[in-house]
Amino acid sequence: MGQITANTRAEVKEIVYSFFSEECETDISRIHDDTNIISDLEGDSLMFLELIEIFKKKYNLSIELKTIAKYIVKHPVETIGQLIDTQMLMIEHENNIVNL
């Protein structure tokens, strides 16, 4: 499982905000936790998959995409804040996320 520190959430938030700012070609100041990924940023599920790969490398995670998919079906992600929360759970619980 990934190491959670006091700074982990701030790191995750910074990565997510920067990622969507760059990928969606929008100013980072327009992104906040309530920003809807699809309707506000015109993001898509492929971006989510790309972010998963970024976090897998950064935090040395061993988590399967099918596990994430099972979790997301029960806990859909629509906003930046929900995505950050989900990433934190992935870092903390890896494949055990499906049991939450």
Q: What brief labels describe this structure?
A:
single chain, 100 residues, mainly alpha, Non-ribosomal Peptide Synthetase Peptidyl Carrier Protein, Chain A, 4 helices
Describe what is shown at a glance:
This protein has about 100 residues and is an all-alpha fold. Helices cover about 55% and strands about 0% of the residues.
**Would you identify the CATH H-level superfamily?**
ACP-like
Topology, number of strands: 0
For the termini, the CA-CA separation is 15 Å
The CATH topology name reads: Non-ribosomal Peptide Synthetase Peptidyl Carrier Protein, Chain A
Question: What is the number of helices?
Answer: 4
Number of domains: 1
At CATH level 2, the architecture is Orthogonal Bundle
Instruction: Show unreliable segments.
Output: none
CA gyration radius, whole angstroms:
13 Å
Biggest β-sheet description: none
- Estimate what percentage of residues fall within beta strands: under 5%
User: What would the average pLDDT be, to the nearest integer?
Assistant: 93
- CATH C-level class: Mainly Alpha
Q: What is the string of SSEs from the N terminus onward? A: HHHH
**Which outline best applies?**
globular
Structural class: mainly alpha
Assign a percent range to the helix content: 40-55%
